[in-house]
TrEMBL record:
Pfam (any one): oligo_HPY
Record NCBIfam families: oligo_HPY
Record-linked InterPro entries: AAA+_ATPase, ABC_transp_ATP-bind, ABC_transporter-like_ATP-bd, ABC_transporter-like_CS, Oligopep_ABC_C, P-loop_NTPase
Species of origin: Kribbella deserti
GO MF annotation list: ATP binding
Name of the molecule in the record: ABC transporter ATP-binding protein
Keyword Transport: yes
Domain annotation ABC transporter: ranges: 5-246
Family named by the database record: Belongs to the ABC transporter superfamily.
Protein keywords: ATP-binding, Nucleotide-binding, Transport
Lineage: Bacteria, Bacillati, Actinomycetota, Actinomycetes, Propionibacteriales
């Protein structure tokens, strides 16, 4: 797979009351051409910070963002060109649209900044691609005159007006009614099929990932803890955190309730960063497998960017070794 957008050993830290919060703590992630990747995790896990860094809105403390294999430059001219290729779709269309701007003005803003010719034609085509037809009917409307789904389509049209290669969509359907969510997800899939668009979809909803993504990356406390194809991750989850996230879906037969809140990013736990909340460790299964001490004390390696299924979990690694017929306990 040719990586179009890539995070390579990405770290992002913020100062917080004299301490350093590791919002993104070593992430390798790729989005291939024509691929939709879902970045999944609880609120506060770092996924929005990662998305902002990939967009060039945050500078990494270390590591790099690459586009087309070339490290991102933070010079103003280079960023302007990059943001024409990689566009953001925000979660709340009501908040991201100026209530005093017409639909035409909202969609035309990007083309004007980038000096595109044939403005009206560009706006019309973008609105039509976003499913607002005939586009001229929407030119003079204001956001308050539109439904929630129509407003989100206007936001998507604003991104499409620049003919980007990648969309970074942050919770693109979280604020919409259930009846409208399917339409917006179907639109994103259609854009991928018709235009070859790639997308990184940031979400807390694994059900959404199942409906739209080719690959899934599960994030916890600043790191990717499990990744793989959507079928591998959502039908055979290896990491206890992924299993807990899946258990809240309506079709799940077993509900897993995680204790506590995600830990403070200024105080990353020793060993596996998930171990204070891990149901496998709490139940004694990790002790039976001989990895309980490792879970509490030995940090796991940062997962590489790869297409095959992988999980940063001592217990999952023991199970995998056992399935291959090798030694059932780590050395």
């Amino acid at each position: 797979m040719n990586a179009l957008l890539e995070a390579r050993d990405l770290h992002v830290e913020f100062s917080s009351r004299g301490r350093r919060a590791r919002a993104v703590d070593g992430v390798n992630l790729t989005v291939g051409a024509g691929e939709i990747v879902a970045l999944v995790g609880e609120s506060g896990c770092g996924k929005t910070t990662l998305a902002r860094t990939l967009l060039g809105l945050e500078r990494p403390t270390s590591g790099s963002t690459l586009y087309g294999g070339v490290p991102l430059s933070y010079r103003a001219k280079a960023l302007k060109a990059y943001r024409r290729e990689v566009q953001l779709v925000l979660q709340d269309p009501t908040g991201s649209l100026n209530p005093r701007q017409t639909v035409y003005e909202a969609v035309a803003e990007g083309p004007r900044i980038h000096g595109l010719a044939n403005e009206e034609e560009v706006v019309s085509e973008a609105l039509a691609r976003a499913g607002l037809r005939p586009p001229e009917r929407f030119f003079l409307r204001y956001p308050h005159e539109l439904s929630g789904g129509q407003r989100q389509r206007v936001v998507i049209a604003g991104a499409l007006a620049l003919n980007p290669k990648v969309l970074v969509a942050d919770e693109p359907v979280a604020s919409l009614d259930a009846s409208v969510r399917g339409e917006i997800l179907a639109l994103l899939l259609r854009l991928r099929d018709e235009l070859g668009l790639s997308a990184l979809v940031v979400t807390h909803d694994l059900g959404l990932a199942w409906n739209i993504a080719d690959r899934v990356a599960v994030m916890y406390l600043g790191r990717i803890v499990e990744t793989g194809s959507v079928e591998e991750v959502l039908t055979k989850p290896q990491h206890p955190y992924t299993q807990a996230l899946l258990s809240v879906l309506p079709e799940s037969e077993e509900r897993m309730v995680l204790s506590g809140e995600p830990p403070d990013p200024t105080r990353i736990p020793s060993g596996c960063r998930f171990h204070p909340r891990c149901q496998v460790l709490a139940s004694g299964l990790a002790a039976e497998a001989g990895v309980a001490d490792l879970c509490r004390s030995k940090p796991l390696s940062i997962l590489p960017a790869a297409t095959e299924a992988q999980a940063a979990c001592h217990f999952a690694q023991v199970l995998q070794i056992g399935q291959t017929g090798e030694a059932s306990r780590p050395t």
